[in-house]
Amino acid sequence: MPELRKDPILGRWIIIARERSKRPTDFVVASPDTVGGFCPLCPEHERTTPDEVLAYGRNPGQPANSPGWKLRVVPNKYPALVIEGELDKEGEGLYDRMNGIGAHEVVIESPNHSDRFAFLPPEQMILTFQAFRERIHDLSQDPRFLYVMIFKNFGKDAGASLEHSHSQLVALPIMPRMLEAELKGSLEYFKYKDRCVFCDIIRQEMQQKIRLVCENDKFVTLTPFAPRTPFEMWIMPKKHSSAYREQDDASLASLTNIFSETLRRLDGCIPGVPYNFVLHTQPLREKPQEHFHWHFEIVPKLTSIAGFEWGTGFYINPMPPEDTCQYLRDIVLD
Question: What is the pLDDT of residue 143?
Fold first, then answer.
């Protein structure tokens, strides 16, 4: 029988359509098309991108925007928002508008065109998480920005327009509705129970171990109770923290290890599956929050959003998270 499950943070309902239940091999993932040709993100092509705002790995004395780097961050050549100008908020009757001010940057995660993020060596992958932290710190100095959204699109079906491994960040002058909803839902829970809902989730999942995919000394990966898609996973710090940018290098090393394991387990279940990951963290100028817990959400692209989902706001998921968790745990990693 189908089951309705309620997300304990957002309050949204998810339909677990058990009669449509599948195995990982039932999902058809198209082989990625290799376009080849010129890649603006590869070494020796630095002058084809906007001037970098951050780079790691060059030897001392090497100039900016030259080869020899291990990671680069550059402004997006075709940004969703632009950094120059003022917001100039105004009303037009009952409508509101402002200029599209923000920052849109690309994190080039490796100099090697064929590298995949899930299989980067730890010493390379950690640079991405360090770059996220450094760019949030830097962009937080701009009073126009309220939030920095960090995300990765892997695979064409997940929105990736370039083959070269990269992620993106967008500094916003407004708060994303999803984050506002999480902040509101977690605050209501805290006012009622005087506890962080995310901490309660982690505590229960570590005790029950039916949706716990993997863990290390500082982090857990779990399949949420009410997932939007098959194989959705959350990576969360065990110790309460509301701000990603406050993590030290030791914490980011542990994050790197569990992120690598999580993505490799996903690829072991469904090789080459397209996915998005998104960082949820506290707003830029907020003090530490007892009710909110920063985390990454990984959402594979395995189901379609159609009329029912658009009309109701409900998601239909054909696989219970307990089943996907078991498949992920059963993967034998090298």
Answer: 94
DSSP 120: S
> Please, are residues 232 and 315 in contact by the beta-carbon 8 Å criterion?
no
Q: What is the pLDDT of residue 21?
A: 64
Encoded tokens for 102: 């923000």
Instruction: Give CB contacts under 8 A, 24+ apart, made by 178-185.
Output: 178/280, 179/147, 179/280, 179/283, 181/10, 182/9, 182/10, 182/280, 182/292, 183/282, 183/283, 183/289, 183/291, 183/292, 185/9, 185/10, 185/11
pLDDT at 308: 84
Predicted pLDDT at 327: 96
Alpha-carbon distance of 146 to 163, in angstroms, equals: 31
Q: How many CA atoms does the CB half-sphere of 185 hold within 13 Å?
A: 16
Question: Exposed, middle or buried: residue 299 (CB in 10 Å: 0-12, 13-18, 19+)?
Answer: buried
Q: What is the pLDDT of residue 163?
A: 94
| Cross-strand bridge partners of residue 214 | 221
pLDDT at 328: 97
List the helix and strand counts (H, then E) for the chain.
6, 15
Tokens of 175: 């708060």
For the chain, give every domain's residue range. Answer: 41-83+95-330
pLDDT at position 35: 63
**Distance between CA atoms of residues 111 and 226, nearest Å:** 38
Which residue ranges of the chain lie beneath pLDDT 70? 20-22, 28, 31-36
Q: Is the dihedral of CA 278, 279, 285, 290 positive or negative?
A: positive
CB-neighbour burial class of residue 157 (10 A; exposed 0-12, middle 13-18, buried 19+): middle
Residue 168: is it exposed, middle or buried by C-beta count within 10 angstroms (0-12/13-18/19+)? middle
CATH of 41-83+95-330, one of 3.40.50.1000, 3.20.20.70, 3.30.470.30, 3.30.428.10: 3.30.428.10
The residues assigned a catalytic role are 166
